[in-house]
Amino acid sequence: MSTDDKNRAVAAAILPLVGGAGNIDSVAHCMTRLRLGLRDRSLVQDEALKALPSVMGVVEDDTYQIVLGPGTVARVTPAFEALVAEGAGAEPARSAQELADKGAALKAARKAKNATPFKLFLRKIANIFVPLIPALIGCGIIAGLNGLLVNLGWLPGVTPALAAVASGFMALIAVFVGYNTAKEFGGTPILGGAVAAIIVYAGVAKIEVFGQALSPGQGGVLGALGAAVLAVYVEKWCRRRVPESLDVLVTPTLTVLVSGLVTVFGLMFLAGEVSQAIGDVADWLLANAGAGAGFLLGGLFLPLVMLGLHQALIPIHTTLIEQQGYTVLLPILAMAGAGQVGAAMAVYLKLPRNGSLRRTIKSALPAGFLGVGEPLIYGVSLPLGRPFVTACVGGAFGGGFVGLFSMLGDKVGSTAIGPSGWALFPLLDGNKGLGSTIAIYAGGLLVGYLAGFVATYFWGFSRAMIEEFDVDPEAAATPEPVAAGGPAADPDPEPVKV
To answer: What is the C-alpha separation between 437 and 440, in angstroms, rounded?
Structure first.
């Protein structure tokens, strides 16, 4: 079976279990999840969906999210969209309308529950930066490869070209942020990109603001974000007031002019100060309280992910990468996944009779080692309760380990955001050489695995939990044969599974 056929087969297996094409409102994907807007949540067959070999787990938020893993989701999504389009075209309009009417109340209730202003704002921020992650990863790996070649003195004629390939995107990332910001906030994307492009234009070096000459790139992604948001509001103001016959000339001109001047004479300086402060605070925190800060960040990251608050860190990561070449926060936060893996291995040993849960752990552990934690979180630790807390303990100790070395002067950073676990190794960078950086990060992972395992094995289960969960669900569901002399029994009873 070809790769395309395999992806289509995965999509075809998923579609009927989420209610068919008529039940799909929207289709999107992030790094690991297929995100579906559903008309009627009750049509989804959760257990059958989770049982599919390609599905690592499901998450329900403002959209129904099916965890397929990095790489796989990007290939399955187009096939799924094609099947939805085919099915929607073949399905009578009346049927789709009936499904929409039936699910309207459920959909409205779900949206109301998750549509707090703060969460909506964080989702907008995530929608701006998440599409940039593949380019960040690709350029980050190329930058790491180039650095290795330079240090080894190999291919001196090729390394300048690799440096250009790796750095081109980062040099213009503000433009992409501006484009995505305008798109997300309801403006014309190209106008957002045009205003953000001012930030990286070399000619701004001739402009003085508050007695200081601006520098190209000053304010970075934060300045681009602010400039594009301003452009959206100026554009909307113009659309409401400019006569329709003049709109095509006046609106884009005023949008770029007004928001551009405000960007040059205010936002670039302001965002530059904020960006500098972010870098200074991160450096100070890790240099003076690295172990404690790492302990807190590593321990709290899983709950932040559960609440969706981790999205607030994306602009901070991007600012640090833009400013310093790498983010020192991501390797610490990645320790949360190590604690989760250690906790899952302890659960595997503590519940030897629960074959169903042990199979889930065995299938999810490879993804967990590569930094995809959703299957272990939603399929193992969170439903059990206490193991989720002890997984956080493992992440805290791993984060504290990495933070301790930052206090000692060994910074460990990542040149891109997105991957974690073992998948982060190709993206590592630091201030003391690649060997030292890799060793510290690997040591943090080992500490996280060990601390998560020990905390879960010794404190993750009460006696009542062992009695409740250390059973074979399949054997428990099989009826016991009736003893001789008792009530009438099935003449051909099924054998009891042991």
So the answer is: 5
Distance CA(467)–CA(387), nearest Å, equals: 16
Asked which of 42-51, 61-70, 100-109 is least confident by mean pLDDT, the reply is: 100-109
- Tokens of residue 426, six digits: 């190709």
Catalytic residues, by residue number, are 30
The model carries a pTM of 0.79
Q: What is the CA angle 341-344-348, rounded to 5?
A: 140
Do residues 331 and 415 touch, judged by C-beta distance below 8 A? no
Distance (Å, rounded) from C-alpha 352 to C-alpha 127? Answer: 42
Alpha-helical runs (H) found in 51-132:
72-90, 93-114, 117-129
Helices (H), 268-413: 268-307, 314-324, 329-333, 335-350, 355-369, 374-376, 382-384, 386-407
φ/ψ (deg, to 5) at 92? -60, 145
β-bridge mates for residue 33, sequence order: 67
Show the tokens assigned to 362.
């065995």
In residues, how long is the chain? 498
Percentage of residues in the chain with pLDDT exceeding 90?
54
Torsion of CA 368, 395, 345, 310, to 10 degrees: -40
Judged on CB neighbours under 10 Å (0-12, 13-18, 19+), 180 is buried
